[in-house]
Amino acid sequence: MVFPARRGPIKLNEMKTTAIKKLHAKLAADQPVYGLWITLESASIAEMAVALGLDWVVIDAEHGHLDWKEIVEHVRATVRSDTVALVRIAELSIGLIKRALDIGADGVVVPWVESAEQLRQAVAFAHYPPEGVRGIGAERATGWGECFAEHAQEANEHVLVVPIIESVQGGRNVPSMLSVSGVDLFFFGRSDEWSWKAVENATTTYDFHATILHLLGIDHKKLSFRHSGIDRRLTDVHGRVVKEVLV
After folding, report:
1. Residues 104, 80: contact at Cβ < 8 Å?
2. How far apart are CA 227 and CA 230, in angstroms?
3. Which of 63, 158, 220, 227 does the annotation list as catalytic?
């Protein structure tokens, strides 16, 4: 059997840098970005997200029943698209972060981050040396070992590490987390944060919102807070929606 001569390295898989850059550009321009949370196993869901032109999907490996075979099928469905694929891992763990990125995810969503130190650790776990401590393997992310060097450089520059702020303590530490290099996006976990009302009084919970408003440059004293049971929006004194803060 005769095999054709190779004409250089074949990139079997690569990060969707164009999609990641488009996501950053929209956020920098204060434009909305649209996506969905995937909790079911059918990869057709991710395919539909791509077909709809969504900016991002989060594949949920924290809650629910998805296993790694199903997660990689969702990631594969977004290849060569403009839809950023993120995996929400179960906890802050170097093993889980490495595995999610090795199968080709564009980044990870890390639950229950409460301090800048935890966030720095997550960033280190997601970056190759010398910027971090991520180990390299011959998996999908590296084109099954065909593009180690290219992928390491590309990943260190573009990988997304997205913390979820889900507790009152995490809310208090958001200002210090903003100084952590390598983090551009934050999720705010409305349900978990709201559940803290069961153990702390309402004043403490509202202080969390005031912190976020202050960082957004909004005077919370001029706003009223409404809870509909479905979503919570910041409204002005006339009841008009000012900003959807918790996403």
Report:
1. no
2. 8
3. 63
Q: Average pLDDT over the chain, rounded to whole?
A: 82
Q: Which two tokens stand for residue 77?
A: 């469905």
Respond yes or no: is residue 220 known to be catalytic: no
Instruction: Give CA–CA dist 73/33, Å, rounded.
Output: 23
Q: Give helix then strand counts, H and E, for the chain.
A: 10, 9
Cβ-contact 98, 141 below 8 angstroms: no
Structure tokens at 114: 């409460």
- CA-based radius of gyration for the chain: 20
Q: Are residues 38 and 119 in the same domain?
A: yes
Cα distance between residue 119 and residue 180, in whole Å: 7
Q: Which domain holds residue 102?
A: 17-188
Query: Residue 130: its pLDDT value, please?
Result: 95
Contact 194, 178 (CB under 8 A): no
Instruction: For the full predicted model, state whether its pTM sits above 0.70.
Output: yes
Tell whether 37 and 141 lie within a shared domain: yes
